[in-house]
């Protein structure tokens, strides 16, 4: 088959043009080597950064939401911040800065054009809403969150906690109910309902159900100690001491609130020496700065008697409660000298709220007597306690 002369001429011109491009390309690279290097580096960065981005981003979102569900907001902030910073273009922006101010500005402009990591940023905004103790600031942040997503379960949970702190129970209950309907895994909302039903409405049956559900949806490894302590207390109120002890023993940690609740149940079940040992441990912890600086040990203690609740936030009040309880254990062990020494140590921490805390200790001791033990020693301790100033 013969080849057309016209085709041969066209092919020759194309070959000559291609050969002519080589010097042009070389000249362009020599003139613009910096831009070429930046473009090449950015292309490599995109490929590397994007390869694992989606999977890692989804994992961080899931982890952050898990922390939101159980009210661990500091951990949620940390994880969502990682997710926000993970986006490949953020890494590219960092690399671009190496090649000069203009390159960095261009990459930053690209970042600004996109709504990067919006889910992670939303999670971070929610987790950050309660980082201040100023209730007015918190309310303002929650209002802003609600405007963006009025049907967000986490926002409802945060509102519930806010109203609970103000003892506005109807509003708190309404928001907690909304949260669990929107998100069946909202453990912190279930726990809020548990607290409302138990400490503030004296509805033990409903409180038990809410606390058990909170622990169930949180999952054993993640369920906060507060959930477990509260459920153990509810079991003890209903005479289910073995279940209460099992819950607390399985926690197996050194947090003071856990140890003290365990001691209280040992006292109720006539294991006075075990109770005294743990109460001494807690007393020592309350007088040790390193122990007190652990976040869990800074939390308030919630105690209940005859349908009323008391919140112990001051270290001195916690010391008072522990000292009175330890003195009671020594009396029950028939070691009155140790009991009196402990009451003497309680004098200073009990100056402010000692009378209220005495009523709580008397309530605990009445429960001991109801369980059929040590009535005479309990009466002797009551007299000593009333005389204490």
What distinguishing features does this structure have?
2 strands; Serine Threonine Protein Phosphatase 5, Tetratricopeptide repeat; 3 domains; two-stranded antiparallel ribbon; 389 residues; mainly alpha
Describe the protein in words:
The chain has about 400 residues and is mainly α. The chain has three domains: about 20-125, no CATH class; about 130-205, Alpha Horseshoe (Serine Threonine Protein Phosphatase 5, Tetratricopeptide repeat); about 225-389, Tetratricopeptide repeat domain (Serine Threonine Protein Phosphatase 5, Tetratricopeptide repeat), CATH 1.25.40.10. About 75% of the residues lie in helices and about 5% in strands. The chain has 21 helices and two strands. The protein has helices at about 5-30, 35-50, 55-70, 75-85, 90-95, 100-115, 120-125, 135-150, 155-165, 170-180, 185-200, 205-220, 225-235, 240-250, 255-270, 270-285, 290, 315-330, 335-345, 355-370, 375-385; strands at about 300-305, 310. The chain has a two-stranded antiparallel ribbon with strand order 1-2. The longest helix has 27 residues, at about 5-30. The radius of gyration is 32 Å and the shape is elongated. The model has no long low-confidence stretch (mean pLDDT about 80).
């Amino acid at each position: 088959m013969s080849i057309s002369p016209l085709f041969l001429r066209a092919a020759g011109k194309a070959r000559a043009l291609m050969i002519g491009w080589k010097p042009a390309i070389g000249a362009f690279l020599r003139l613009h080597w910096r831009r070429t290097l930046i473009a090449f580096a950015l292309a490599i960065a995109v490929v590397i950064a994007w390869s694992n981005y989606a999977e890692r981003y989804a994992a961080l979102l899931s982890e952050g939401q898990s922390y939101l569900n159980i009210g661990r907001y500091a951990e949620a902030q940390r994880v969502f911040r990682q997710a926000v910073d993970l986006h490949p273009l953020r890494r590219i922006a960092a690399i671009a800065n190496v090649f000069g101010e203009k390159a960095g500005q261009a990459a930053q402009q690209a970042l600004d054009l996109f709504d990067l990591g919006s889910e992670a940023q939303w999670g971070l905004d929610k987790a950050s809403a309660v980082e201040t103790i100023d209730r007015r600031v918190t309310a303002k942040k929650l209002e802003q969150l609600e405007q963006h997503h009025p049907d967000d379960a986490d926002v409802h949970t945060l509102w519930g906690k806010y109203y609970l702190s103000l003892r506005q129970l109807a509003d708190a209950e309404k928001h907690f109910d909304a949260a669990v309907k929107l998100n069946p895994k909202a453990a912190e909302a279930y726990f809020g309902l548990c607290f409302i039903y138990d400490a503030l409405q004296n509805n033990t049956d409903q409180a038990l159900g809410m606390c058990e559900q909170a622990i169930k949806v949180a999952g054993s490894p993640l369920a906060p100690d507060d959930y477990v302590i509260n459920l153990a207390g509810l079991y003890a109120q209903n005479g289910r001491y073995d279940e209460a002890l099992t819950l607390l023993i399985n926690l197996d940690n050194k947090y003071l609130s856990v140890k003290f609740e365990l001691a209280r149940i040992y006292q109720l079940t006539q294991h006075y020496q075990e109770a005294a040992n743990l109460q001494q441990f807690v007393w020592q912890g309350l007088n040790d700065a390193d122990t007190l600086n652990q976040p869990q040990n800074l939390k308030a203690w919630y105690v209940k008697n005859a349908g009323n609740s008391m919140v112990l936030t001051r270290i001195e009040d916690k010391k008072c409660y522990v000292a009175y309880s330890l003195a009671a254990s020594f009396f029950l062990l028939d070691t009155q000298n140790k009991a009196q020494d402990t009451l003497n140590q309680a004098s200073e921490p009990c100056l402010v709220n000692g009378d209220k805390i005495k009523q709580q200790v008397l309530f605990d001791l009445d429960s001991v007597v109801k369980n059929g033990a040590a009535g005479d020693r309990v009466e002797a301790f009551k007299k000593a306690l009333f005389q204490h100033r």
